[in-house]
């Protein structure tokens, strides 16, 4: 495992996001996993220091019109 500070997993089938952070190279895993839903702002700390706006993320497949 490289020391990538964040790993963002986006699942468009169920509208969920997992942000894995704080890599632990000794155990080959991330120490922290935060869960979000489409529409949430996903805050990334340093070295990025910005939020990912997920309000425009779409489910796949899109829901049929009602």
What does this structure look like?
The chain has about 70 residues and is mainly β. A three-stranded antiparallel β-sheet has the order 1-2-3, with no helix packed on it. The chain has a two-stranded antiparallel sheet with strand order 4-5. Helix content is about 0%, strand content about 50%. The model has no long low-confidence stretch (mean pLDDT about 90). A hairpin with a 5-residue loop joins β4 and β5.
| β-strand amount | over 45%
Number of strands: 5
Main sheet attributes: strand count, strand direction, barrel closure:
3 strands, antiparallel
> Which overall shape is indicated by the principal axes computed on the Cα atoms?
elongated
For the record, give the distance between the C-alpha atoms at the N and C termini, rounded to a whole number. 46 Å
Helical amount among residues, as a percent range?
under 10%
Alpha-beta classification: mainly beta
Strand order of the largest sheet: 1-2-3
